[in-house]
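User: Here's a chain of 119 residues. Predict its fold as tokens.
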Amino acid sequence: MNYSVCFSARSDYFSAIRSFAEPAVRFYTKFYLEPFSAEETTEYAEAAFRTHEKLHGLLRWLYEKTLGHPYFLAFICRELLACTQGSVPESPEHLWPHVFQQLERNKFRLDLAQVLNES
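Assistant: Prediction complete.
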């Protein structure tokens, strides 16, 4: 059986126990994810909003909010599209409280609940 496994950690996570971990990690293809650059953030936002017009201010705002983190970029774009019925927001800053509340509700509360349930 072939399973996909996603393990998130620093790239040097196994360095202290390399000889011990080697039998397990040699079977996996390592793919290191990095934050998006400003150009990659632009590319993603243009695809998400299906336009490259009127995005200049939004692109700068998105990059400042997400620092290129793909998860947060996708989440924020999805919420902005939902708030504006699929159009490009003229002023995303006034939508930020709602977007942040959704992010808190959908992401962090679930994560915190899992941590509290495991304790």
